[in-house]
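Interim report, section 4.2 (structural modelling).
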Amino acid sequence: MNKYALVTGSSDRIGKAMAIELAKQGYRLLLHYNNSIQKATQVKTEVTSFGVEAELIHINFLEENNFDDIFLQLKNRHIQLEVLLNCAADFIPSDFTNNGNELLQKEIKINFEKAYLLTKAFAHVFEQGLIVNFLDTKVEKNYTKHLDYILSKKLLKEFTKLSAVHLAPNFRVNAIAPGLILPPKDKDETYLLNLAKNIPLQTIGNVEEIAKALRFLLESKFVTGQILYIDGGEHLV
Ligand SMILES: NC(=O)c1ccc[n+]([C@@H]2O[C@H](COP(=O)([O-])OP(=O)(O)OC[C@H]3O[C@@H](n4cnc5c(N)ncnc54)[C@H](OP(=O)(O)O)[C@@H]3O)[C@@H](O)[C@H]2O)c1
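Predicted structure of the assembly:
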């Protein structure tokens, strides 16, 4: 059996950085992507330069997926999944002025439901492992500029704790809650630097800070159900 890690949303940004970190730690990679096949292919080239094997997995989280079947097929190929990083996400503005629940359903599906289903399938098919869910420091707040996004992340936060208890002792389930790490796709670093004036450490982070948190969770076999806020203290204020 070969030790593998699955990273959802691995084609760019934080997911890509986590895939590279796992490759440095000797994990073979299952690189999930949805639209960004070219970027995902580049990530595959980059991680294999660390001497590990990698393969791409295409899944659109807005479609129905049978993760038990996908994992069983992997297991039949002697792939031993040891680490699951639920990193893929959709980040859209929505608030109380939006009618209906279309945006809520979309955010729940991509940001919560697939992490929930992947977690259950991981525990059904494999014997042990580590799951890391990517939250957002704003799960501690009650801002409504991204109402549906934040609701989906709050759900994932609670599921992290529930699954940490239920899946122990064979699985550890933790979360990383990033703060000001990378700007939204339509903004630049200046946007983050302005926001940083209002958080305790008055600076922005970077993907290496997230990679350090991941290394800690990989190594810390006595840690489960924790949420690491990598956010310059933002969740406190
Ligand atoms: N960036 C930050 O500073 C920050 C702050 C707080 C929290 N976070 C959290 O940290 C994680 C990583 O953040 P990020 O900014 O690197 O993420 P991102 O770039 O916004 O998204 C990551 C990936 O999610 C995938 N995705 C989106 N819709 C999908 C769908 N329908 N099906 C399958 N995959 C889909 C995309 O894959 P494709 O490109 O292949 O379509 C995308 O590359 C997220 O969970 C985010 O909420 C990030």
